[in-house]
Design brief:
- This protein has 277 residues and is α/β, with parallel strands linked by helices.
- The protein has three domains: 9-96, Cobalt-precorrin-4 Transmethylase, domain 1 (3-Layer(aba) Sandwich); 109-221, Methyltransferase, Cobalt-precorrin-4 Transmethylase, Domain 2; 224-276.
- 45% of the residues lie in helices and 15% in strands.
- The protein has eleven helices and eight strands.
- The chain has helices spanning 14-22, 31-40, 55-67, 88-96, 109-115, 135-144, 160-171, 195-204, 226-239, 244-255, 259-276; strands spanning 25-28, 46-49, 72-75, 124-129, 150-155, 176-181, 189-194, 213-217.
- The protein has a five-stranded mixed beta sheet, with helices on both faces.
- Helix 6 (135-144) links the parallel strand 4 and strand 5.
- Helix 7 (160-171) packs antiparallel against helix 8 (195-204) and helix 9 (226-239) crosses helix 11.
Amino acid sequence: MVGTPIGNLRDITLRAIDILREVDIVATEDTRVSRKLLESIGVQKRTIAHHLYNERKSSEGIVNLLQKGKSVAFVSDAGTPCISDPGALLVSKVRVAGLKVISIPGPSALTAAVAISGFSAGTLHFHGFLPPKGPNRMATIEEAAKMKGIQIFFEAPHRLKATVQDLLSTFGDDCKITVCKELTKLFEKSIESTLGKFFEAVNSGEFDTRGEFVLILEGPLNNYSSEENELERVLDVLLEDLGVKDAVRLATRLTGENRNLVYKIALERKIINHDFG
């Protein structure tokens, strides 16, 4: 399972290049897309299609090839297989057959976006692409709004406006959002905003909705439990006179909370109190 660039072809890893050169066959979500990648690294290989619409039959064929001693690399159109891309069924079938699966790590829009979101990624929930319509769509959004940590969605340009509007109706106007588009590509852009302001920009046409998007939401502040709200109050008092290290030590003793959680919230409160206190 080989991770491939999500835009800039130079993001391919040296190990991925080695594997693609060494294997007998490259299975790919779209042979036309992968052919461009292979040509860019000077590789000529037999390619076979393995995508959402043929994956059951194709998985059986790939297992058969492996059993005959062939080596196969699977690449999706971009990024890491199985992250909003095919691949999971293939991995399962190969493992059931008692054969070996190796991950060749590489680019992913998910991790690339989190890295520049400005949000702490201690807890995150990745929802991929929302269902385009139906009750499952709003059910997914409503469930996400109840979860602690940042909430991450992929979205296509023609559904961006509707998705932001649905998120707005559940998360609220003031929910912080980081929007990343066309990561690693020529027109890459990322902005920080609130859902209310971002929807206005999309709705008015001020924001260019062309491209592929990653939406990262901070989540409602009321996601914190009452214990964590009490911890914040304790830390606010301690941080008035103490450094983070001493405040964390005392708050951990006073509240009995996990030290890692106390430290994480202490850093957040320190930033908030410094910026707005």
